Input
Amino acid sequence: MTIYKNNGCVMLLRVMVVALIPMIVKGQNGTIDARNQTSTKLRILIPVRPGLTKFVAIERHPITGVQNFSGFAIEVFEEIVSFGLPSPVPYEFIPFANADGVMNGTFDDMLKEVSSQGYEGAVGEISILHYRTPWVDFTLPYLDSEISMLIRMNQQPIGKGGIALASATKYIVATTLAFSFVVAISFWILEYRTDKNASQSNDTSSSVQSTGIVYDNLRREILRSITQTRLVVILFFMVMLVLLGCYTASQTSSITAQRRGGGRIKNINQLIRNKLNVGHREGSFVRNLLIQKGIQESKLISLNSEDEMTEKLSKGTAKGGVDAIFGDSPNLKLFLANHTDYCDRFTIVPEVTIDTVGFGFAFNKESSLAKEFSEGLLKLIDTGRLASIQQRTIGSLQTCAGDDDDIGDSNQQLLDSDSLWILIAGAVAVFFLMTIIILLYCGLRHNGRKKKAIAYPCYLLPCC
Output
């Protein structure tokens, strides 16, 4: 009897163990299932950045007070939750801001809050950096990024129709006037000598009474004067053609340099050497990065909005502004793309870049959300949903100064519209040069055929 009782207890224990095993495995297999068994939501921090609403935008309904969240990063996160994960999870966005609605610190502070205050993650234009990995786990980057430099162009904006004549400096004008003066003096000397010789011939004819000799001498002097005048005119136009060619080449080079970002700052060492002020967005990790590059902390200025960026960069260091702004390349490209009138004022220097991994989502290290959202992000990439969201929210990030295609298009438009001035000047010069050659040929042929002096200046008629 005792044996049956012991066997019954053993069997009961076995049944209880078998029943508990699936429950334990179900709770350990995935955090999503464990969270679904509770009513808690994922608490996701988002940055508050005025003027930069393409990635994260917060709008409050004026009547109900309900907050609406939108932007590229928000839509990517929501698409992963609804499409990329095995099952949807509840979540709520919490702005990382103080009572005044201002961002409560930097991006680093926000990520530290995720680690210390028990938030599940953070969403926004968060750069994936190595020194942040002790605080959070990152997903794969949903957008490539690098640190770029925005500077002010040296050239002043000019009208499109007069761009070919914009650099007609005083030296070109002075050279043209000087050659015109030399030609005028040459004409006067040649004509004065002809008139003087003709007068002497008339005096001689009075004494000698030889009409044939008078006309022969007069015709000979006129023909010599015409030949010399033609040589002067040809020389003048040849010099002007050379000047026009040099001017055109110089203009083309300067315009192309301007379109490709002809600013005077080419590297960070120039900023350090000249002790120029440098701007960056408030709360960005770029500040510490620039200090590591050797820029003095006193030369760094935090900028809170796009209007402040425009104002400070337009002033320059001499007037209390900045001469360069460093930031994530997507934000700088969006700054230029949203203000097309800035294309002739500011430009991104392609030679100055600091590589980063890109933008990603950050999650608490105690969860497996980073892995799950990375897998969901790959699903969005494979299906083309990520590209569709990007095109709808931030576009292709093509700017007038930062992309080769746009540069080629702008240069092509420049040649199509403004080369009219060059074509007109070239056509006029070629016309006069051909006219002089024809006149010279006609005059020599006429003189060789008739062996007589020309009674009327041959440079005024095609053929005499």
Observations:
- The longest helix spans residues 211-259.
- The chain has a mean pLDDT of 74.
- The chain has three domains: 40-144, 146-153+264-355, 163-260+417-460.
